[in-house]
Amino acid sequence: MPKTLRSLCAALLLLIAPFATGGEITVAVASNFIKPIEALAPAFSEATGHRVRLSTGSTGKFYAQIQRGAPFDVFLSADEARPARLEDEGFAVQGSRFIYAIGRLVLWQAETNRDIRPDVLRIADGGRVAVANPVTAPYGTAAAAAIENLGLSATLASRLVQGENIGQTFQFVATGNAAFGFVAWSQVSQNGALIRGSGWLVPADLHPPIRQAATLLSRSKDKPAARDFMVFLKSETARQIIRQHGYDTE
Q1: What is the pTM of this model?
Q2: Binding residues for molybdate, per the UniProt record (predicted)?
Q3: pLDDT tens per residue, range 41-96
Q4: Which of 46, 81, 112, 225 is least enclosed, having the fewest CB within 10 Å?
Q5: Under 8 Å between Cβ of 188 and 108
Q6: What CATH number is given for 105-201 in this structure?
Q7: Residue 6 contacts by C-beta under 8 Å, 6 or more apart in sequence?
């Protein structure tokens, strides 16, 4: 861990240490957020002594699982609508919800050093285009909106291949099963720069904002480790890690 983050973690430890009891939590994490959560979890454990189990998948499926009593403590959604619904339905603690990250969408190709523009999708034999399921994955909803606003709905109607979540969508492109894909900027960037393949960062005004909300689930309202994680996620230590992985923060 970089020296700066170690220092921030040490400062955070002074704030959280009185509540730390070495507990364990399970966090349901939208698949777009895998890379940052893999950095956040050990930073949180170092600062608090708590352990974190991660479960990654699509936001829509997690929403349904939580309604059925899935044993999660904290939900890191890829949207803000489902955490709000969970609060209204009594499955999440009222007032615990906040925006932990704001995502960006990118049109991506695995091949490097290519000039990617949306016009490449207008080529009739340009290959398949991967998107996440717009029903269960907010990044899929954003991709569908971008495609429509770019006037590409008819052109791509027979060429779209749908991933269950943004992680699977990325894999379709990375493995060559799709020529292009609308994926999360965080999957292909680091510190604001593209680190693999070629991409076109989709202008934010072409799709609804991808505001990702965290919420504390009701079953864990009295669990110190879960509450400490929510505090940590708002800390500058966490916010710095999140920004390094291609997200904006509020």
Answers
A1: 0.82
A2: 59, 166
A3: 999 999 999 999 999 999 999 999 999 999 999 999 999 999 999 999 999 999 99
A4: 112
A5: yes
A6: 3.40.190.10
A7: none
